[in-house]
Amino acid sequence: MQMFILSDIYEPHKLANSAEDNLGLCSITKPPYYYNYLQLKGNYKFKDTYDTFIHVLFISLKTLRNKYNFFINTSKEVIAFAEKIIKFFCCLGLLLIPFAFKRENLKEWLLVFFVKGYITSFIGHFAVKGRQISYPIRFLPKFFKINVVFDYLLFPILCGFYNRTSFFSTPITTIFQALLYSMPMTILEVILEKYTDLIKYKNSWNWMITYLTLAITFLFVRLFMFITRKLHIETDRSC
């Protein structure tokens, strides 16, 4: 059975063409289940049922692509699609900024924002240099090797919400919230890693490392702000 490489995921017409060539077809004019019917009659013989399923699946993908224009076929379209995702999250982050910061204790929330951005970008640079993660398509690629929109905008904003909701929480609830806030971002990153070129895992990096890294950085910033407030209160009392 013919094997297909990972890059063909973004060019499903290659997959469909390969299956079509093996079947001896020049065009798809009949529904995919018709070829399964022919195979059962003996007109087309495959090694086993699994080969039959693979061939029919790829023919179905080509049929859907031609009918609904569902798939991305060229590298230019892949890049354009990824750039639209970046623009969307950038606009989303900018819209969330007024809700992430309150006028009360604005200096503290800005400190949370910048500390989280610094830590996340530091870890991101370390992971990229260590060849654990790569960002093939990113914002300002000539100046940054990390995903600026996530590391400098979305993650810090999310950390701001986390610090606000856990401001009066107990230690156990604070840890639980850190794990909870890390979950949607990890799921989003896994989806982007699987279906786009915005991020790619390499070597031993996986979703669990991302999840734990986010949770630990949330807790670190929360602890940092707790110590900062304590020192500020003691300074005011001494004065």
TrEMBL record:
Keyword Transmembrane helix: yes
TM helices/strands, residue ranges: 78-97, 109-128, 143-162, 174-192, 204-227
Superkingdom as given in the UniProt entry: Bacteria
Keywords (A to Z) from UniProt: Membrane, Transmembrane, Transmembrane helix
NCBIfam families assigned to the protein according to its UniProt record, in alphabetical order: CBO0543_fam
Protein name: CBO0543 family protein
Native source organism of the sequence: Bacillus seohaeanensis
